[in-house]
Design brief:
The complex is a heterodimer of chains A (about 110) and B (about 110). Chain A is mainly β and about 110 residues long. Helices cover about 0% and strands about 50% of the residues of chain A. Chain A has no helices and 11 strands. Chain A has strands spanning about 5, 10-15, 20-25, 30-35, 45-50, 55, 65-70, 75-80, 85-95, 100-105, 105-110. In chain A, strands 2, 4, 5, 6, 9, 10 and 11 form a 7-stranded mixed sheet that branches. Chain A is globular, with a radius of gyration of 13 Å. Chain A starts with a strand and ends with a strand. Chain B is an all-beta fold and about 110 residues long. Chain B contains no helices and 9 strands. In chain B, the strands form 2 sheets. In chain B, strands 1-9-8-3-4 form a 5-stranded mixed sheet, with no helix packed on it. The chains are: A mainly beta (about 110), B mainly beta (about 110). Chains A and B meet through strand 4, strand 9 and strand 10 of A and strand 4 of B.
């Protein structure tokens, strides 16, 4: 158990809908990452937050947004969902910026 | 873009040492070598990292060449539970983590 909690574990929704994925980092971790992994694809970096501020951005679609709250948990919002958004979404947290990252077990999103 | 090159797949007999190579010929002086692995569809797991010295922990050893252009992750006694995709990542310690395609390691019984 990495200590990073992601909810829900599974989510099935229809095209055009909006969903929110939640990540609770390890206690004391200030940095949160989000990744997308489609079937048989690699881990694509989406976005990183550090202590509530956006720190780095990857190839995140405009339909996707994220934020990190004062209690350091983070949410990834996916809107106008398409079939191709079906994927595993992972969150990772780091204590600071110069430490190792630990990953949650992911949220499996299925868009039908 | 990933800054490393790894073989797409490797086999290793159970109980033997698994040696996973990684080329990072453009590594800069501030960049560390990190290794993660992903077992099936679980979240990636941190294994080890190093700058220029060889490193060892309870999971693995990391051997970095003197010129730092390549490294090898060693799993000393591979078990079936080590079957996974192994990712070699080069990054500065405060930089984002970018995954490449990794090496799919098959442990053979």
């Amino acid at each position: 158990d990495s200590g990073v909690t992601q909810t829900p574990k599974h989510l099935i929704t229809a095209t055009g809908q909006r969903v929110t994925l939640r990540c609770s980092p390890r206690s004391g971790d200030l940095s949160v990452y989000w990744y997308q992994q489609s079937l048989d694809q690699g881990l694509q970096f989406l976005i990183q937050y550090y202590n509530g501020e956006e720190r780095a951005k990857g190839n995140i679609l405009e339909r996707f947004s994220a934020q990190q709250f004062p209690d350091l948990h983070s949410e990834l919002n996916l809107s106008s969902l398409e079939l191709g958004d079906s994927a595993l979404y992972f969150c990772a947290s780091q204590r600071g910026l110069n430490t190792e990252a630990f990953f949650g077990q992911g949220t499996r999103l299925t868009v039908v | 873009d990933a800054k490393t090159t790894q073989p797409p797949s490797m086999d290793c007999a159970e109980g033997r040492a698994a040696n996973l190579p990684c080329n990072h010929s453009t590594i800069s002086g501030n960049e560390y070598v990190y290794w993660y692995r992903q077992i099936h569809s679980q979240g990636p797991q941190y294994i080890i990292h190093g700058l220029k010295n060889n490193e060892t922990n309870e999971m693995a050893s990391l051997i970095i060449t003197e010129d730092r252009k390549s490294s090898t992750l060693i799993l000393p006694h591979a078990t079936l539970r080590d079957t996974a995709v192994y990712y070699c990542i080069v990054r500065e310690r405060d930089d984002k983590i970018i995954f490449g395609k990794g090496t799919r390691l098959h442990i053979l019984p």
